[in-house]
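ok so I'm stuck.
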Amino acid sequence: MEKTQKNINIIGGGLAGSEASYQLLKRGFSVTMFEMRPNKSTGAHKTDGLGELVCSNSLKSLDEATSSGLLKKELEVLDCLLLRIAHECRVEAGGALAVDREQFSKAIERELTKYENFKLVREEVTDIDFEVPTIIATGPLTSKPLAQKLAEMSGDENLFFFDAVAPIVSASSVDMSFAFWGGRYGKGGDDYLNLPMSKEEYLAFYEVLVGAECVKLKDFEGKEVFEGCMPIEVMAKRGEDAMRYGPLKPVGLCDPVTNKRGYAVVQLRKENVAGDALNLVGFQTNLTFGDQKRVFQMIPALHDCEFLRYGVMHRNTYLNSPKILDATFRIKGDAKIYVAGQLSGVEGYVESIMSGLLAGIALCRELTEKPQIVPPKDTICGELSRWVQAENGNFQPMNSNFGLLSPIQMRDKKERKKEYSKRALNAIIEFNNLLNS
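replied:
not stuck anymore, here's the structure
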């Protein structure tokens, strides 16, 4: 397509904003992206890079028999830039797609700046110019002035939940005499470092963890924790064995030297290609830094570990989207204003990328006076798009999951999931053909 003179404002340089920019740039539009970092940071970001992964470095499963794997397959059909970059920056993580954060971020900026019609402006946006087509993708850490503006537009207070980040430790500081590399049931290669604990060690760890000191957060009462990113101390307080049925599940993890299975097993995942930084899988936390060191060093392999980053907890803002958005992520009304990313009420890295991709396509179609189309039902893309505008009386952010899809009646669970994926991929291919017709 020939370049148009129409300029689009993208507010926010995260996952959704970056993907939306690409979808518009490749269709010939000029894009001005506003990113407030580094002039103004947040409580969770560490860099000024585009598409920074604030929490985990994992984009979840690649298996298309899982909802997260299926969503990736759907986005690949729709030419998703960020997934392509994620594969280029991949680090070993078994069947999951995990990336080197720094390489991933740099690659995103490098790809976008290849377009001469892309402009990156490092400043905070506190108001919205309704005369300029805009995608607001400021994420769950939207600055207060803009969040207030959005609240005024929606006639409702912004909703929120609390999210947590896991610590990262130096690989060289892990005591390997208490650890072994390997995937669950021997699958996925040696992608995870496993730290087994005996029953006595686990129970001692559990007792100290549930009594450890947490950071006092304004507005936090405990009920606003997002289940998909629950702090390890909150999980522990649900019962002595809660962690053993969650991130410390020992099933399928046998020490190849002793051929024994720990009572509980902590897993570490590579943070970067070099492998010198490791993320404590499932150990999102709001403990004070001092207690993180005191408690987590009770894990035998981490008795003298070096923390490269401590875990933190932060408030995530999202809109009451059914009141303000339609299924194309467009704000209801006359202005050409869209909202994408976690601010729109989707939850998760790839889900945020999806919303940016679809918002970018929808805005392009509006500007070129083409009829709007939403991804088909029974695709993850389609059902999440419908979720953000579905009045259900208790709107909450939503991850990809098969429960969004209409049921397929098959007894065999694995075969049923394969059928979900087959049906969805056939539908998304037809949708993509329609987009390009």
